[in-house]
């Protein structure tokens, strides 16, 4: 299987707060552009020390030459006492993510207007689970 070349990639932290030494919250976005389209991941990571970890992920994918975007929203969380990781690993969203439970999941197909100059607004087709 040939991997498609990545034309552009960026991982940017938009917001970070240590919650007055009671945990951490981080909002970040990852952007990846390939010849066939682009992928965005907007992630909000929240750790309240001794209580809970929650992650809200919004993924958006667009394939070139299509008239729609695919959007997926997932909320995952779990009590810290139930996560089998060390304290240092609890600050890494990528390490924690597989150990969290899905609380909410939504998928949408966002239809784009046929012409950018058109006054027609995009429609949303929802598939909620």
From TrEMBL:
GO cellular component, one term: cytosol
Transmembrane segments: none
GO biological processes: TOR signaling
Entry coiled-coil feature ranges: none
Database matches in InterPro entries: Phosphatase_reg/MetRdx, TIP41-like
Family: Belongs to the TIP41 family.
Name of the protein this chain belongs to: TIP41-like protein
């Amino acid at each position: 299987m040939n991997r498609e070349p990545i034309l552009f990639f960026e991982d940017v932290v938009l917001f970070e707060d240590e919650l007055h030494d009671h945990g951490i919250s981080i909002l970040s976005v990852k952007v990846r552009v390939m010849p066939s389209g682009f992928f965005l991941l907007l992630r909000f990571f929240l750790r309240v020390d001794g209580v809970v970890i929650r992650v809200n992920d919004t993924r958006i994918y667009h394939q070139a030459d299509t008239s729609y975007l695919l959007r997926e929203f997932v909320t995952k969380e779990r009590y810290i006492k139930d996560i089998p990781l060390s304290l240092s690993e609890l600050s890494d969203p990528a390490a924690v993510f597989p150990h969290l439970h899905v609380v909410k999941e939504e998928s949408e197909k966002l239809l784009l207007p046929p012409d950018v100059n058109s006054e027609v607004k995009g429609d949303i087709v929802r598939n909620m689970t």
